[in-house]
Each structure stands twice: as structure tokens, then as C-alpha cells.
Amino acid sequence: MCQRPGEGWLTSVNEAAPRTVEVRVRAGAADGFAELYAAHVHSLTVQLFAYTGDLAVAEDLVHEAFCRALSRWKKVSGHDNPVAWVRQVAWNLARSRWRRIRVAADFVRRQRPQAVEGPGPDRVALAAGLAQLPPRQRRAVILHYLADLPIAEIARQENVAEGTVKSWLHRGRAALAAYLRETGKENGR
């Protein structure tokens, strides 16, 4: 049975060359598979390394192709050239990997937020004016004018009488208007 990397069967030939792998196959279960693997794992890894540019990825692709060949060994061993079948599977896996990477990159690119202009001077002045209001007046103005809540809903939320909310709104609007007039005069408007 094929084993995954990290289970003690992986041995390095040297750091510059692709790694060789010891394949454990039950006796008689896959006659000729170990020989095919030993004869072609290095050359297939070199080919996939040249294609992917990543040795670890190339080794994983070749290993996966050989695992698939082993699981279908009765059929694959009947081919005229079993290594061609393994090579084709490895290349298909590499192409599938590139497609998945490209699709993921396209998705990420589409998910990027578009550049949004910063707030204009009027919005900055409004935010600064709201910051000048007492907290209750500020909440009332924001809830009524920005969140579109009716006075009755604001009164329930704040646990006060409707008349109190009307008073907050009146005072908040007056203070905000005075602040915006002063800001407009300072900015030459």
C-alpha cells in the first residue's frame, strides 16, 4: 500500500537531486510495480520538477500518480507502457493543480474591494459635528436620520418618553447646524 510522506519511508539521495522512495508492496499483490517505480520515479520527478518549478510539488504529484497506478495495478500493468500511464496521470495532476491555483487567484482578485474614495469635506464636517454633540443627542440624530428609525422606536430603545427623543433631536439638529455654519464660514463657503 502507498504511504504518505513523513511515515518513515522517505530517504534522500542528496539535497540537489529528487528523493527516492522505498515502496512497500505486499508480495504478489503488484508484481512488477516496485521495479517500475524504482526505474522511473526519478525521471518522472525531474520532468514534473521542470514543469512545476517546485521539487516538493513534483515529488507529491509523482507519488500520487504511482499511488493511483498501484490501486489499479491489474489494469495498468496490462498496458503496453505502464510508465506512460503514470506519466500521463502525473501531468494531469499538475495541470489540475495549476487550474485550481488559477481559479483561486481569480476568485481572490475578484474579491478585492474596489478603491473607495475618502470621505468628502461635507462628510468630514458632519462627522466632526456629530462628535461635538452630547452622546444622547448624537445617538438620537444618528438613529433617526441615518438608521431611519421612527421617534417611537428610538424612545423604546433608549427607554425614555417620545417627547425626550424629540427634544434630543431638536437640540442635536440646532447644535449640528450651528457647528456646520461655523465650519462653512471658516472654510470660505
What do you see in this structure?
Helices cover 68% and strands 2% of the residues. The chain is mainly alpha-helical and 189 residues long. Helix 5 (121-132) packs across helix 8 (162-186). A hairpin with an 8-residue loop joins strand 1 and strand 2 (20-21). It has 8 helices and 2 strands; from the N terminus they run ββαααααααα. The protein has a two-stranded antiparallel sheet. It has helices at residues 33-52, 55-71, 73-76, 82-111, 121-132, 135-146, 151-158, 162-186, and strands at 10-11, 20-21. The termini are far apart.
Provide keyphrases for this structure.
189 residues; mainly alpha; two-stranded antiparallel sheet; 2 strands; 68% helix; disordered N terminus
Oligomeric composition of the shown chains? single chain
Which sheet architecture does the biggest sheet show?
A: 2 strands, antiparallel
Order of helices and strands: EEHHHHHHHH
User: What is the C-alpha radius of gyration, as a whole number of Å?
Assistant: 35 Å
**Number of helical segments?**
8
**Intertermini distance:** 81 Å
What's the overall geometry?
Answer: rod-shaped
